[in-house]
Amino acid sequence: MLTLFHHPLYASCRFVRLTFGEYGEEIALIEERPWARRKEFLSLNPAGTIPVLLAEGDHVIVGATVIGEYLDETRGAYKREKRLMAEDSIARAEIRRLVDWYLVKTDGDVTRHLVRERALKPLMGGEGGGAPDSAAIRAARANVRQHLKYTNYLAATRDWLAGPRLSYADVAAAASLSVLDYLGEIEWAEYPAARDWYSRMKSRPSFRSLLSDRVRGLSPASLYADLDF
Predict the structure, then answer these.
(1) Peptide bond into 51 cis (omega under 30)
(2) Euclidean distance between the first and the last CA atom of the chain, given in angstroms as a whole number
(3) pTM confidence score
(4) Does residue 70 belong to any structural domain of this protein?
């Protein structure tokens, strides 16, 4: 069984977990605290970042999008209509654009800051912890609305976020927004199309392991695991 070094509140790690779930494969999970810079982990990835996949033959694959491409080549190419990457080059470009949007831009504007300030700092102690930065939280919350408006637009104008079928774009968006959903940072009633799309994603079997996630010291929002939220 393949092994994923991850943290439950990193959108990039959730992206990989959802991808494995969509392809019907189980993976062993090792929760990693990258701020601790554990020597054994650094020997796998000197950059100290997650996710890291220990693949067949104990080959190390680093980074969400790199792991995604690896899984597309080794699993997705054989899944036909269940493949998460399109065959057409233009459609592939749109999928990659949206994966980057959610795993890089949304993460940089919103998710990373809320996770760090609300969930991780209490766990980090002398390794970068401390009191939450209220200014960082306010700035991230101010950015949430624009990302939800954009998701709402995509969901209202397309069958799935990147086009006519489920793709890596939906997986990346669901991974990112599920973290914010865990933290209770989304007012879903304001974004009906996004809410309907997220409900479809949340109801998929691949999502079950994410809905069981719990982080020490921070319980999920009351409707996090509710499929009829």
Answers:
(1) yes
(2) 34
(3) 0.96
(4) yes
